[in-house]
Amino acid sequence: MTATTPISATLIDGKAFAADLRARIATQVRSMKDNGITPGLAVVLVGEDPASQVYVKSKGRMTREVGMNSYEHRLPAETSQDDLLALIGRLNDDPDVNGILVQLPLPPHMDEAAVINAIDPAKDVDGFHILNVGRLATGQKAMVPCTPLGCLMLLRDRLGSLSGKNALVIGRSNIVGKPMAQLLLRDSATVTVAHSRTANLPDLCRQADIVVAAVGRANFVQGDWIKPGATVIDVGINRGDDGLVGDVDFDAAARVAGAITPVPGGVGPMTIACLLANTLTATARANGLPDPQGLTP
Ligand code: GUN
């Protein structure tokens, strides 16, 4: 493949998919409101991390756009962990709050696991609480982390059944890599999880029908690692001199892959849409209603 080889892959339009998902969520929010229930999402930001501030702002805006109540709590970086835990306790007890998200990373003096595990698992719309992690791993009804859920929706939309497909997840974070592997396994894919110590990553990649790249290194996955016709999901959001780039060398991979997500406009918009989907699911469950259609795995 050379730079003159035309791009052959189908572009997976996460932006359009997410807009459609939000429209479906808004419809379901309207019918909940007709029955006197307004879903509410509380987002907690500690400190002034610039990227986190951007995320929190757009989470609030999109929450309101689908008709949900948005509650934003911005705390100074030097807030004590006890004060944060006290706020989480109040949100756990507040019947108007159906979902709670504590934006990560937290300042270094805080114990991230202790904070996350203080959230009521029924309101844990990030799916990071240890109970939800365990439920996902054992095939029980869980809250599922938003970014992997979004990737799964795009994969199912593109491929239908994932059964028997070779899937390679590159990255083993608690937020993306590990839950992504669990979701793929649940859909009967054959799953390999690669990481910084993996030997022969290019060879592993060449056997993969599905590649999910979540390593946080710009243009890390090379075009000649991609199996012809493979489906490539790029979770990376790397800020460089040329703006946002993914973890996959897009120009080269798109000449080999069958389908690929762009950056931006691929996985990114799916994350917030899935956060809203999880908030709707949490609201339905809290009110004894069936899970909303098509929003849970
Ligand atoms: N920081 C980066 N991604 C995420 C996410 O999905 N949830 C939370 N809470 N913080 C994040």
From TrEMBL:
State its Enzyme Commission number(s): 1.5.1.5, 3.5.4.9
Entry binding sites for NADP(+): 171-173, 237
Query: Where does the Tetrahydrofolate dehydrogenase/cyclohydrolase catalytic domain start and stop, copy by copy?
Result: 12-126
Sorted keywords for this record are: Amino-acid biosynthesis, Histidine biosynthesis, Hydrolase, Methionine biosynthesis, Multifunctional enzyme, NADP, One-carbon metabolism, Oxidoreductase, Purine biosynthesis
Top-level taxon of origin: Bacteria
Pfam families according to UniProt: THF_DHG_CYH, THF_DHG_CYH_C
Query: Which reaction does this enzyme catalyse, per its entry?
Result: (6R)-5,10-methylene-5,6,7,8-tetrahydrofolate + NADP(+) = (6R)-5,10-methenyltetrahydrofolate + NADPH; (6R)-5,10-methenyltetrahydrofolate + H2O = (6R)-10-formyltetrahydrofolate + H(+)
Q: What does this protein do?
A: Catalyzes the oxidation of 5,10-methylenetetrahydrofolate to 5,10-methenyltetrahydrofolate and then the hydrolysis of 5,10-methenyltetrahydrofolate to 10-formyltetrahydrofolate.
Q: Assembly state and interactors?
A: Homodimer.
Q: What family, per the record?
A: Belongs to the tetrahydrofolate dehydrogenase/cyclohydrolase family.
The name under which this protein is listed is Bifunctional protein FolD
